[in-house]
Every structure is written in structure tokens, then in C-alpha cells.
Design brief:
The protein has a single domain, classed as Nucleotidyltransferase, domain 5, CATH 3.30.420.10. It has 133 residues and is of the alpha/beta class. It has a five-stranded mixed β-sheet, sandwiched between helices.
């Protein structure tokens, strides 16, 4: 697996989404590694971003780097919890544990520099695509 991955979440329609969204992971060259839909009413952009980072942490090499454009997700993982989204704390703790176990570096990159976000902007998924993701 790659040494560097970029992760990004997306939603169908608005935040929170009435139908869901998903996540995308790309390599250091912007090549798609994985993309998956999450068909869940009420999915938020933060939940999709967190799920993307978790999947990237699973896929990246030990000692690798995962980039995200969500400062909030970086903060959640650093502290190991969210005060406002306690429903996500189990996933946050799992992500933190995996990142620590694999010595992965989680880094913030602006939206304009996050290759997964750029991929999503160029290849915007919609609800009709969800079954093929």
C-alpha cells in the first residue's frame, strides 16, 4: 500500500444529507484507491470526513501519512473524542488507536491541496451513482 494517502468525505445534496454521501481515498498522485457510498439519512460532512480518514489509516503503510482537509477531524482524533458528536466517539477512538498503532502521521491540508477533495470536485458522485460505488 501507499506511503501517502489523501482522504475526503462527500454528501449528496446538503449537510446533513437526507440520503447520505460517502468517502474517497486517493494516492499521492491523485489516483483513486477507494471510494464508497454511505447511504444514511442524516449523514454529516464531519462523519463522512472521519470515515474517510479511518479508511485511509487502514490502507496506508505503517509510518505513512494521511492528509485531510478537516481540521475538526484532526482535532477529534488528537483528543480522542468529540464533545458535540458523542455518537462518533467510538469511531474517533478506533481511528486514533489505529493511527497510533501504525505510527501514521495525520496532517491537515487545505481543500485546494487535498487530492481526494480535488478528485471529488472533478468526479462529483450523486445518489444515482451510489449503487456502483
Amino acid at each position: 500500500m501507499p506511503k501517502t494517502l489523501h482522504a475526503d468525505g462527500f454528501l449528496f445534496k446538503r449537510n446533513p444529507s437526507p440520503t447520505g454521501g460517502g468517502w474517497t481515498v486517493v494516492d499521492a498522485h491523485g489516483k483513486l484507491i477507494e471510494r464508497q457510498a454511505i447511504l444514511k439519512r442524516g449523514l454529516t460532512c464531519n462523519e463522512a470526513e472521519l470515515t474517510a480518514v479511518y479508511r485511509a489509516a487502514q490502507l496506508v503503510d505503517e509510518g505513512g501519512t494521511v492528509f485531510t482537509d478537516s481540521k475538526l477531524v484532526c482535532d477529534w482524533i488528537e483528543t480522542g473524542r468529540s464533545k458535540k458528536r458523542s455518537d462518533l466517539n467510538k469511531l474517533i477512538r478506533a481511528c486514533k488507536g489505529l493511527i497510533e498503532k501504525k505510527s501514521v502521521s495525520l496532517r491537515f491540508r487545505s481543500r485546494k491541496q487535498n487530492l481526494a477533495g480535488i478528485y471529488n470536485d472533478r468526479n462529483r458522485p450523486n445518489e444515482d451513482d451510489a449503487k456502483s460505488l
